[in-house]
Structures are given as C-alpha cells and as structure tokens.
Amino acid sequence: MLLFKKSLAILFIISSFYAQQVSAQEIQLSPADDLQQALNNSQNGDVITLGPGSYFGNFIISNQVTLRSNNKGEAIIDSQGKGHGLWLKNSQITIENLTITNWGHDLTDQNSGIYSHGKIDNNKVPSLTIRNNILIGDGFGIWLNQADKAIISHNRVKGNLTLRSADRGNGIQVANVTNSHVFLNEVSETRDGVYVISSQNNIIEQNTMHHLRYGIHYMYSYDNTVKNNTAYDTRAGYALMSSRRLTITGNKTTNSEDYGFLLNFITQSTFSHNYVKNVWTKPENKVLGRDGKGLFVYNSGYNTVKHNIIDTAEIGIHLTAGSENIKIFGNSFINNPTQVKYVSNKKQEWSKDGRGNYWSNYLGWDMGNDGIGDTIFEPNDGIDKLVWQYPEMKMIMDSPAILILRWVQRQFPVLKPPGVKDSFPLMSAPSLTKNEQAATPLAVTTSTFTKSNSAQSANTTSASLKE
Asked: Which CATH class is domain 25-421?
C-alpha cells in the first residue's frame, strides 16, 4: 500500500511537470498591448517577448516566466520616475535583453530597476536570472534579497552623476543571497558597484566598475570569492568589511583616490595576485592625514596577503588597530613614497620559507646571486612613527637634527622600536601570469559583453603582467 501511494505521488509530480510544459506559451507583445495584464494572465513557463518600443509603468511579475526582447535594448521599460521598474514576486523568473530606465529615486523605499525582496513560503527565492539588460536610473539598479542560485550577468547599470554619491543607489545589491553568481557586468556612476551584505557562498567575478564610491563593497558575508574584477576611477576599488573566509584573487584597481583595497575587520581570508595602481588623493581634496593607500588593513587578523602588486600609491600598505597575525610575502611594492605605515608596537616578519617581498627602494645587494637580498629590509624607523603620531613634524624632516637621529638609530639598533621586518627581500618583482590566477569554475559566455569593457580589462591585465 505504501509503495502504491509513493508511485501515485511520483506520477502526479511527473504529470504536473509535463502539463506545465504543454501549457507554456510564447507570447508576443507590442507597446500597444497591456503588459501588466499579460503578466497577470501568464502561466508558469511562459516566454513573453516584447517588441521594440517603450512600455510605461511599474510592472509586477507573479509567475515563473521569462520576460525578454529579441534584441538587447530594443524594448524599454520606462517607470516614469517612480517605484520599481520590474518587481519579481516569484522564483525561476528570467529577465533578458531589456532596457529599464527612469525608475524611482526613493532609497528608503528601495526603488530599483529590477527588484526582488523577501522569501517565498519561508524559503529563499531560487533560480532568478537577470542577464544582458541595460539599466539607467537614479535608485538601485538590481536589488535581490533572500535569493538562492541567482545569476546576474552581462548587464550594464548606469546611475546619475548629477546626484550626490549618498543619494544614489548601488548598481547591484545582493542581501541574504547564497550560491549565486554575479559576473561580466559593467556598473558606473551609481553609489557602489556591487554591494554584498549577509551573503554566503557566492562568486563575484569579471565585472567592470568605474566612477563610483566603491567598486565592490562587502559587509557581514562569509565564504565568498571575488576574482578577476576590474575597478577604476573610484574612491576605493574594493571595500571589504566585517567578513571572513573571503578569497580575493586576480582583481585590479587603478586610479582610486583613497584606497585600492580597504580591509576592515576581515579575518581568515586570502588576498592574492591582485593589482593596485595609482592610489592618490586629489590635490583639491587633500587634508592632513588623508593619503591614498594601496592596501589599508584595519583591525584585521589571521589573513594571507601574497603575490600582489602595489604600484604608485602614496602609502603602499597601512596596517593599524590590531592588524596582526598576517602572512605577507611575495608581494611587490613599487614606487610608493611610503612603502609601509605600521601603527603597532609588535614585531612582524614579512616573509615565508626564505622569500619575502620586492621593495623598489631596497638598496641591499645579492652576493649569493640567489635573488634574495643579503641585508634585512626594514621600511620604517622610530622617526617615521613620530611623524605618524605628530604630522606637524613633516616640516622638519630634512633638518640636521632628524638626520642625526636616523643615523643614531642605524648605528645602535637596540634603540629602534618594534616594527615590520623583511628578512629575505626579493631583488626583482615576481611576475604574475594568468595561470597563477584562480580558474573560473563556472562556464561564462562573453559574446554579449561590451567592447569597451573587454578593452579596459585587457589593457589593465597587460599592465599587470608587464609590471
């Protein structure tokens, strides 16, 4: 009897599946048709294709359908300055090839071009797909909350630079999202490019982000991978906060004003094969203590920082507020006026297994011809620490008194305060190759990615490899 009931249940599931497939329709609409009525009357599995033109309003999708146009951008969802463009209220919804514009700008109401918020039957919303769309508006671009196995790919999101950064939404915002993949998107002129909060086991890769506050911004998220992304013209390329077990590899950031990478309360994470170039505060924004930092590490411990390039930042790496128990080796610090700013009274050795880091201002020699400097490199001394505590001292840095104090410290090392030491400095910068970067575990189609994105990524990669 039990076997009979199980068989009936299986037959019911199979028949329901095939019934859904048979009833699914392909629906063609034009701007003259009522899109919301078509969405309301649709069945799970339907494919609704929008013809060229503008569809005005705020549209709610309550069924498991695909909403698309045949060619990217030819069908326009225009929300006339209010609300959400598309509100997704079910799982297994696909949004593809649309242009969505002119949605609302009320950030308190989370106005978004594409919006999904809240669980279904107390479960995360599975299998949302948002790909190959163009979104231009003032609020949030794509907002997903409580989603699982979502795919966000090949979209272009553009904000409004006439608004203050704080008054713009983020380009792509994912909250409480798991097992999802965000890749090959371009985000510009929003507040942050990709904002991730309270999310686990996601991959953020091969995105291009520019003219933003932060390229990628992480909060309270664990076991995520951020790789092979490109950020430029930002205040910070990557701002990672209050998260652990992150893998950050193969990313690039150029022309940031405050930080290449900002690590605030990050633990048990690995940062490798990343490239940071040109982190410099603009003269008009310069105030005492505001310097561009390639890596800023605040209250972050038990991390590994290896095989990165930090080139032409006002400060190469700044560690403070208990940032200890960090393995730092195999990195290249190039053309940074201040290579290291380390605010602590504990010693740190920055090498592993007889190999340290490359320092462009290292003046030692290599008598053994093994690629390792014969003298220890210590980037800071007691005078540096005094200047950090009392910035006004910069006015007398070249005075005879300061030069004598530095000479005394060199002659009597016992007077030198604890700090960073690299016992095995490298004589040349290690080369980074694509093979050293993490391989992509998921198939990615790049045919619809814009030529400008590809060119930017290629140029930055070439610069990284040459360095």
From this structure: mainly beta
Cα(193)–Cα(152) distance, integer angstroms: 13
* pLDDT per residue as tens digits for the range 126-158: 999 999 999 999 999 999 999 999 999 999 999
The two tokens of residue 24 are: 């699914």
Q: Are strands 59-61 and 332-334 parallel, antiparallel or unpaired?
A: unpaired
Closest CA to 445 of 131, 229, 147, 230: 131
Judge whether 253 and 234 are in contact, CB under 8 Å: yes
Cα R_g (the chain), whole angstroms: 26
Instruction: Return the domain boundaries, the chain.
Output: 25-421
Q: Give the chain's mean pLDDT.
A: 85
Look at the block and give the residue holding tokens 């409580």. Answer: 146
In three-state secondary structure terms, 391 is helix
84 DSSP assignment: -
Q: Which two tokens stand for residue 277?
A: 């170039």
Q: Which two tokens stand for residue 218?
A: 């992480």
What is the rounded CA–CA span in Å between residue 135 and residue 331? 38
User: What percentage of the chain reaches a pLDDT higher than 90?
Assistant: 69
8 Å CB contact between 265 and 299:
yes
d(CA 255, CA 113) in angstroms, rounded, equals 29
